[in-house]
């Protein structure tokens, strides 16, 4: 793996322009290099004290059985990916996206937060830092040589990245979710989903082969889920520029932690108002930043809680299924949690158009049951007799 991506940069988000790459080792950080991890890293030294497991498990498929080695805390991203999948193309895509997010994590600390005086086709104002992240991610996908089409929330048209259809992938991403709160120094992030082949419409979130988010806060982390491989996995960016596996989440349990988005909808959605009042009455702890990435990441890291973003007659859906909701749905469900649009798992929701939007809830099983029952009177996660699906008799 190259330690600094020398993107050839076709200017995918502005096809008529050919600009120099934004990525160079010297522009990332003084400690970015190809040297192996050393104990000079405060985080790296501490992490190596964590016991490493050596267990493995079998994954049975309809036509074949594969032995997959269980990941270990302390693994590098490269070591993890080799254990999680045998698909070299997918490994390449996920590695290149990791390189891009490392660059964005550095750039977001120094980039301009001023408006660019332009608007994307959805009507959202684009900020300079959005466009920088957008460019870096397109270049990373082109450089991977395994991405056929890419599409971003900033430029919602399919861009041909030159990769193959057979054995290749299509990637949709939100380059910098929460960019409007960069200037207030809140955590922001990148979200992306990876689909096989050359389709990003007529598919579902469940068709994704991988999804991830980069979280740019006090720490920079890469949170990754691969379909068919247990758990959602967090990698920490160390001083040396390496991603190191620091956490595996396989269960989202019960816990009184809530992140309520779009509270203005409670004005004319009495059922949402009832749900919020329940959280307050039951003394849930409010943890809401206004950024979807840190709020959803919180559920994965704390292994509990619920995130909601609900519509009403006067507040329409804002969150985009392709670029945000479906990828985060795979992260949550791979971590042992659940997702819902009120009636079904987000991963079962078909993506008809690139701009499809939806309401959503992520959380533990009981929280999603509560969400569906409160808003719509019943939950798909319960049997007719009221016993939760999967519960012991």
UniProtKB/TrEMBL annotation:
Q: What catalytic reaction does the record list? A: D-sedoheptulose 1,7-bisphosphate + H2O = D-sedoheptulose 7-phosphate + phosphate
- Cite the InterPro entries for this sequence: FBPase_C_dom, FBPase_class-1, FBPase_N, Fructose_bisphosphatase_AS, SBPase
- Residues in domain Fructose-1-6-bisphosphatase class 1 C-terminal? 254-374
Please tell me whether the keyword Transcription regulation is annotated for this protein.
Answer: no
User: Which cofactor does this sequence's record say it needs?
Assistant: Mg(2+)
CDD domains reported in the protein's UniProt record: FBPase (cd00354)
Q: Which GO terms describe its cellular component?
A: chloroplast
Keyword tags: Calvin cycle, Carbohydrate metabolism, Chloroplast, Disulfide bond, Hydrolase, Magnesium, Metal-binding, Plastid, Transit peptide
Subunit record text: Homodimer.
Protein name, please?
Sedoheptulose-1,7-bisphosphatase, chloroplastic
Give the source species. Linum tenue
